[in-house]
Design a protein that fits this description.
four-stranded antiparallel sheet, 117 residues, Methylamine Dehydrogenase, Chain H
């Protein structure tokens, strides 16, 4: 099992076919139990967002399990290490060492504009 510590919540995940838990950091109360079948235990919390395998982004606000973005699959083993920094998400795969960055909002628009020039 791996525990990911956020500002207000804890996330614990026990790998395949085991439930995941969102836990209130102050009270210890279990806020949500879910199992999405993730084989990887590498998750990152950034604010209310849980960054997980296959570049999944899960919104945990309002005690929810809302998948707001997914993919592309970066690693055949499904495990990636995610880091949030300066408005970008950086991923490094476990099996092949591939690194990539994901942007959104105004920054994504700027990148698209640069490619068209």
């Amino acid at each position: 099992n791996v525990v990911t510590i956020g500002k207000n919540i804890l996330f614990t995940h026990g790998s395949s076919r085991k439930p995941s838990y969102l836990i209130d950091k102050d009270t210890g109360k279990i806020l949500l139990v879910f199992d999405e079948g993730y084989a990887c235990t590498r998750f990152t919390l950034s604010g209310p967002y849980l960054l997980g395998a296959n570049m999944d982004i899960i919104d945990t606000s309002n005690n929810g399990n809302n998948l707001i973005s997914s993919g592309p699959c970066v690693d055949a083993r499904e495990c990636v290490g995610a880091i949030a920094s300066n408005g970008r998400l950086f991923y490094t795969s476990q099996a092949n060492g591939l690194q990539l960055s994901r942007v959104c909002g105004d920054q994504a628009g700027l990148l698209v504009g640069q490619q068209q020039d």
